[in-house]
Automatic annotation (TrEMBL):
The keyword Hydrolase does not apply. The gene is Thyn1. Its main location: nucleus. The keyword Nucleus applies. Residues 10-28 have a biased composition (Basic and acidic residues). It is found in: Nucleus. Transmembrane segments: none annotated. It comes from Chaetops frenatus (Rufous rock-jumper). Residues 1-59 are annotated as: Disordered. This is Thymocyte nuclear protein 1. Keywords: Nucleus, Phosphoprotein. Pfam families: EVE.
Length: 241
């Protein structure tokens, strides 16, 4: 029996802790033009040690810039209960870990760009599991893609909040992938900390300067370059600020 649709996309909203974000009912109802961060400097008291360490690592490796390719992902899901058409769309990392084989389908995506990202995912690629639309959003775990894109069954289920009456079985509009839990991050990496580095990188250069978490913040499926993934992952080794 398929796991009910609990992942967050239709009904996606910007994170509560993101001050420049505006609440939106669905990703489809938002404009394609996302607001850029107004500040070019990191908040007072923020640490740049992560970027200093990254620059050192870059210089040791020759400092060559690679062509931008997306090979990792950030998947947003809501860890707190929220009813959508009478169905609780909550799905936390603990819910994923409770699944057989710690694996589930990532369904309910109803934004074309996010769907296209899903369709680009390759077997074995890793993604950050990101708790969104909650008291303190941020990265909690790493998952991997264990089945590439295939038709999302929830688009044909009239009882599902993500039902789409315009989608046809012979030509499905929406896709999903299967993901499996890999591990928890060594510590919770909050949005506020990632944002501090993003702002520093915008001002001084760095892998997070164009991170979609801030330039396309409402998308629930976001691609990451190898450099972005590695930098964010390096933060789990630092003490929280």
């Amino acid at each position: 029996m398929p796991w009910p649709s609990r992942k967050r996309d239709k009904g996606a909203v910007a994170d509560k802790k993101e001050p420049d974000a505006k609440i939106a009912k669905t990703e489809e109802e938002t404009s394609d033009k996302e607001e850029e961060e107004k500040s070019a400097k990191p908040p007072a008291g923020s640490s740049k040690s992560g970027w200093k360490n990254w620059k050192k690592k870059e210089s040791e490796s020759g400092g060559e810039e690679s062509k931008i390719t997306y090979c990792h992902w950030l998947l947003k899901s809501e860890p707190e209960s929220r009813l959508e058409k009478g169905v609780d769309v909550k799905f936390s990392v603990d819910d994923l870990k409770a699944q057989p084989n710690q694996t589930t389908c990532w369904d309910g995506v109803r934004n074309y760009q996010a769907r296209n990202f899903l369709r680009s995912m390759k077997l074995g690629q890793q993604a950050f599991f990101y708790h969104s639309n909650c008291k303190e959003p941020g990265i909690v775990a790493i998952v991997k893609i264990v089945k590439e894109a295939y038709p999302d069954h929830t688009q044909f289920d009239q009882k599902d909040p993500h039902y789409d009456s315009t989608s046809r079985k012979e030509n499905p509009k929406w896709s999903m992938v299967d993901v499996q839990f890999v591990r928890m991050t060594k510590r919770f990496i909050p949005l506020s900390e990632i944002k501090a580095h993003h702002l520093a990188h915008k001002a001084e250069g760095g892998p997070l300067k164009d991170m979609m978490l801030f330039t396309r913040q409402r998308l629930s499926i976001q691609p990451l370059t190898q450099e972005q993934f590695d930098f964010v992952l390096s933060l789990e080794e630092e003490k929280p600020h």
